[in-house]
Design a protein that fits this description.
With 199 residues, the chain is α+β, with helices and mostly antiparallel strands. It is 21% helix and 20% strand. The protein folds into two domains: 32 residues; 147 residues, 3-layer Sandwich (Rieske Iron-sulfur Protein), CATH 2.102.10.
Length: 199
């Protein structure tokens, strides 16, 4: 075959143009494919830390927020509740959270960074039902031993107002304490652990 008279510059231009168009087309096809592999905005938000403003919380008030698809409770405990917690050890399965994989901040009688503010995942450790908040002392349906706490209506597990499980109930462990920290005196970040202080 005789290539005399063939304009090689046109051939090279067409080859280069076709290569560029092919690369751009491949990019347009690849972008949606790769984008669908990324987690959705909703999925990313579900695992993101949650900020809770406690500046307007009244003493004794419980607020509920969602974090990672779970209910999280923030309770502003009264001084009387904090005193009562110290008297319940004999009734509890694990008063100092020694038997569970919990943050160091929960391995104390109040199970919190600050005694008055309690933060816990609001799911029973038996089968995952959400216990009800029952702050009243000795109600008729729970009896004289009840000093206020969280009652699971599914199978009757009792937790005190520090999320510690009572003896002789189906729940095997204390309520889970999520990682959390104080961003300020009135703002809690749930989903980020507080820095551990070296003793």
């Amino acid at each position: 075959m005789n290539n005399k008279g063939v304009d090689k510059s046109k051939r090279q231009f067409l080859t280069s143009a076709l290569t560029v168009v092919g690369a751009v087309g491949s990019g347009y096809l690849a972008v949606p494919f790769l984008a669908q592999m990324q987690p959705s905005v909703k999925a990313m938000a579900a695992g993101a830390p949650v900020e809770v403003d406690i500046s307007k919380m009244e003493v004794g008030q419980l607020i509920r927020v969602a974090w990672r698809g779970k209910p999280v409770w923030v309770l502003n405990r009264t001084p009387e509740v904090i005193q009562t917690l110290k008297t319940l050890d004999a009734e509890l399965r694990d008063p100092l959270s020694n038997d569970s994989e919990q943050p160091a901040s929960s391995k104390n009688p109040v199970r919190s960074l600050k005694p008055e503010i309690f933060v816990a995942v609001g799911l029973c450790t038996h089968l995952g039902c959400s216990p009800t908040f029952r702050p009243e002392v000795a109600p008729v349906d729970l009896g004289e031993k009840w000093k206020g706490g969280f009652f699971c209506p599914c199978h009757g597990s009792w937790f005190d107002l520090a999320g510690r499980v009572y003896r002789g109930v189906p729940a095997p462990t204390n309520l889970e304490i999520p990682p959390y920290r104080y961003a300020s005196e009135t703002r809690i970040i749930i989903g980020e652990a507080a820095e551990e202080k070296n003793a």
